[in-house]
């Protein structure tokens, strides 16, 4: 005979399942997108889209502000130019997705899959700790701190332990970001702004840091073995011996230490 506590347990379990279920199915999302255009935006605002497979869809005429996209699959989808502020995207799959010129502010993307994603021109002030951005295109991104808009304290991109292997960060702005133990192996950082960034334990093995700005950065245990340091600006670094792998770097004589 089932006890009251047993029945209550079943009720709570069922309730939790119903609460965690997404608001829409993939088919319903597809229908809304199909009926949308620039004048009639698909309303997905604040919707629960957790764990849905929404891969390969075009969301450019959708409003996803504040939606819950945890563990959802948006791989190869088009989210270019969208405002995704205050969404929830932890452990989301955005592999191969187009996020060019997209705004992501006040968002948690911890553990996200952004491999091969197009992030060019995007504006992120978000937490991406332990996310995978290998071979992603981050050229011309603006993920740096806006010092004129810090009424709530220093808000910046947190990218500790991220994988940026082979990523393109040409002309990227990562001013004052947190990138402790980030993996930059084989990445391109030409003209990148890394001013005031915490790069403790980061790995720049074989990365291209041509004309990159590393002024005021934290470089404890940071590895530069095989990195191209042509024109790389290390202002404020008095003891080169503390920089790991520096003697194995390329074009060290063309780096700027002042």
Short account of what is shown:
The protein has 258 residues and is low in regular secondary structure. The protein contains two helices and four strands, in the order H-H-E-E-E-E. A two-stranded parallel ribbon has the order 1-2. A two-stranded parallel ribbon has the order 3-4.
Note the run of SSEs as H and E.
HHEEEE
Structural class: little secondary structure
Total beta strands: 4
N-end to C-end Cα span:
80 Å
How much β-strand is present in the residues?
5-15%
What strand order characterises the main sheet?
Answer: 1-2
As a whole number of angstroms, the C-alpha radius of gyration is 21 Å
For the structure shown, list the relevant keywords.
single chain; 258 residues; little secondary structure; two-stranded parallel sheet; two-stranded parallel ribbon; 6% strand
